Every structure is written in structure tokens, then in C-alpha cells.
Amino acid sequence: MEYFAGIDIGSTAIKIAIVDGTGRLVGHRVSASGSMFYKYAQESLAQLMAEVGVAPEALRYTVATGYGRKLFKEADENISEITANAIGARAAAQEHGEIKTIINIGGQDSKAISMDSEGNVVNFAMNDRCAAGTGKFLDVVARNLEIGVDELGEYHFKSTGTPLSINSTCAVFAESEIIGLLGNNHRVEEIVSGVHYSIAKRIVKLVKRVGIHEGIYFDGGPALNNGLVNAIENELGKPIFVPAFPQITTSLGAAVLAWESYGYESGEAV
User: Fold this and answer.
1) Which residue stretches, if any, does this entry annotate as coiled coil (predicted)?
2) Where are the domains positioned within the chain?
3) What is the mean pLDDT of residues 150-157?
4) Which residue in 19, 95, 123, 140 could disulfide with 210, CB within 3.0 to 4.6 Å?
5) Could you give the CA distance from residue 12 to residue 26 in angstroms, rounded to a whole number?
6) Residue range 207-238, pLDDT digits in tens
7) What is the CATH number assigned to the segment(s) 3-93+248-265?
8) CA neighbor of 156 nearest in space, from 195, 198, 185
């Protein structure tokens, strides 16, 4: 059996996906980027291959993407994360239906991507890296509130009434604002809900720049936060689809492209 890998080297995490000769996902792994992107990407790929039983000689083609894609010298090809994200979203949502809009929230930035019916990217927009609407900001919020980042969704649904307003667009100032709200005896669940809605409002503005179309897909680590999903759906007024493994969409897209590229190069076009 032949296998193909996609490696997404982001600023905070390395995501790897492996597909087989039919383009089916057979394994994936998420690990911290750390300070040595290349070394950790190598180690993570080796560990994933061992876990799923892929011998080195069976890995035919590798595509790298993300912030550190050019650092992974062994890759046969590297592509932008925008392209990989679009390919991965279509692959992950095959049974769900057509995807026209992608919301991606990463560790350091957020993106909105618009696609046509053929899956081609027609427009995209990214936020400012300081904006209080990223995965890193959610980590900071959880730390200040002394709860786990995986508990944010639970606290969101405990909140009642109108969500608190978090106005700062810079993560540093927003953090100060949250500390001030704690000092004024606001409950944790009120603050969490307010944070989620403040992020949702910024995401909706970003999506409007590329056009909001039915078939909305949400990926990135924060998509695991069902409270944030709820806030974005409410702000959009539309349902959004979250895949089973939202963190690996971009690496899955790179893996699918690796499979397709190998097919074309070997004369076995898929």
C-alpha cells in the first residue's frame, strides 16, 4: 500500500495527516511546534508513521504547508495554507455537502475563505495578528480565569442574559479588560460568554469581507470549543459545520494534494 503525508507547520502546533492510495485518512497527529520547527516536525511524522504502521519506503509523497512549510526540506512540494485549507475542507466535508465558506481560527491569526462550486478559492481575508480573536487569546483568557481551555465551552452555556461586552481589538488590552471585569465581580461564565461573542463579532466582520455563502465550515483548534461555535452561529444567523478533527483540516488538504500530485507525476492520475 502507498501512503501520502501532509504536514502543516503552524506557529503553535504541527499537524500531520496521512492518507492511503485511495485518499482515505488513515492517521493524524497534533503536537506543539516549540522552537525547533524542523526537528519537531520530523519527530512527529516518524511517530505518526510508527503508530499507523507506515514503513518509510511506503510514504511516496509529502506536501508541507503552513507558517514553517519551507523549513521541512524533505517535502516533495509546499503550498500555501489557504489552498491546503480549501482542499482539506472539501475532503473532510464530503458527506456533509458543499462548502462555500471557511472560517479558520489558528493560534496566531484567523482567516475567512470563499470558494466556488468547484472548490477553487475565489477570495480570502486574514485578521491582524494582534487581534483578540485567535486560539492563543483563548489560552490567555482561560489562564486568567483559572480554568482549562477545554472548559470554556461548558462555562459559555452556564451564562444567562446579555453577554458582557469585550471591546478591545488587541489581545493585550483585551486581557486587561478581562482582569478588570473579574475585579468588578463578574462571574466567570459571564466573561467567557462575552469573550466568545466578541470573537464571533470579529469573525463575522472578517467573513463579510469575502462574502457569506451557505455551506460554512469552521476549523482550527478553537472549533473544538462548542461555546465559540454557538456564538459564531448566533452572530452569523446560519449553521456552521465542524469536522470531526478540526485541527487537521489544512494538513489533510496537503495530504490529499500529495496523493493527487503523485498520481499525476506517476501517470496514475486520481
Assistant:
1) none
2) 3-93+248-265, 101-242
3) 97
4) 123
5) 24
6) 999 999 999 999 999 999 999 999 999 999 99
7) 3.30.420.40
8) 195
